[in-house]
Amino acid sequence: MKTLFPFAISFMILSSCSRTLDPISDIFIAYQGENPGAVVAIIQNGKVVYQNAFGQAELENLTPVQPNTNFRLASVSKQFTATAILILEQRGLLDLSWTLESVFDSLPAYGKTIQIQHLLNHTSGIWDYEDFVPDDGPQVTDADVLEIVKNHPKVYFEAGSAFRYSNTAYALLALVVEKYAKMHFQDFLKSEIFDRLEMNNTLAFVPNYNEVPNRAFGYSKEDGGWVKRDQSSTSAVLGDGGIYSNVRDLFLWDQALYDEKILPKEALQKTFTKGKLNDGSEIPYGMGWHIKEYDGEKVVYHTGSTDSFRNIIYRIPSRNLSIIILTNRDTPEEENMVNLAERVISEFEERID
């Protein structure tokens, strides 16, 4: 099936004529020219109503960012990991109440109380594996993360008693997928999500196993200049942040979140529902999605931050409105990507009022 990408002509004309006539482009002035770049897409009512690309995907060769440029999603990847788990739950291959002790061998005592659902909504209390991985060390994998967990007898808190964001949890979830799907995590994502949605350029990147087409490389600002810092010792961990994609493929993903192509509506709503602690209090996270309000309306979003990439998918379902911003630089701070997305929304809505 050939996918069409309808655009709002007025916005595309504005962006091609003059920055002064395109306030969204003005927001991204620092990303333009011979700088690490960005791509921005606004989706409303099933159409891409604004799209623009800025700057360079690779500075050394002055390769410009395009709508089909693939960026490392970092923690935006978590929504795909959560979806993979829920696909297996729907097929009766696992239960979210299963404890880690029932899934993995040789875990410390806390494996008896931490459930899969605690991993999904960051209430497991498991320590962050990054604390045990030197920045200049060899790359670790999801399986290495499990070994770190096995050798660390403590947790931050009792499972379900508090909320603390955990990359470790999502590395373990990738291994849960592999065990019960009986295939590599990257292959399960490809066959059960990416291929089914025709996200043909999206993949969980494994060196020497697959290749990223049209790849953006990451850069960090050092001493007033940009230095390529594309990979780190944690970049090979897949479940918490190893997916590459572009705005064209993410448009397809965004639309799938409104229908039942991948998950039934009930399961989708579960991902967008605030989790609860043991005492019944809510947390600002569902399953692979942060949850907040903007202008009195529910927002589901996720940022992504890793060596020299900053990204966000920001959705207001009640408005059928989504903002996607992908960048290949180490600024701003990850939490400030929410502010950036909301600046884009503000300019977009002011323009159409």
From TrEMBL:
Pfam families, alphabetized: Beta-lactamase
Record-linked SUPFAM superfamilies: beta-lactamase/transpeptidase-like (SSF56601)
InterPro entries noted in UniProt: AmpC-like, Beta-lactam-related, Beta-lactam/transpept-like
Every Beta-lactamase-related domain range: 33-336
Protein name: Beta-lactamase family protein
